[in-house]
Design goal:
22% of the residues lie in helices and 22% in strands. It has helices at 14-19, 42-52, and strands at residues 3-7, 27-29, 33-37, 59-62. The radius of gyration is 13 Å and the shape is globular. The chain has a four-stranded mixed β-sheet, covered by helices on one side. The termini are far apart. The protein has two helices and four strands. With 77 residues, the protein is α/β, with parallel strands linked by helices.
Length: 77
């Protein structure tokens, strides 16, 4: 099963990157999973996903805070 792990920033998945000793890049291919760092915001995410979803993935996971439309909601709530 091939999985794509998506995050806006490296900081959101720093533990995962360190654990698997992945290189410093925005697209990190691996045997069982790929990691995509999209950049912050809907436009950056849509653009990055558009470039990489032509590959076949069985599962796509978005890790990190995943943003919010309501600026009145504090982070962590």
């Amino acid at each position: 099963m091939k999985t794509l792990i998506v995050a806006a920033t490296r900081a959101e998945i720093a533990t995962l990157i360190a654990h698997f000793k992945l290189p410093e890049d925005n697209f990190l291919p691996n045997e069982n999973f790929d990691v995509l760092i999209t950049g912050v915001g809907m436009t950056a995410t849509a653009f990055s996903l558009g470039q990489h979803l032509s590959k076949k993935y069985n599962l796509v996971l978005n890790l990190g805070i995943a943003g919010c439309f309501d600026r009145n909601i504090e982070l962590g709530k």
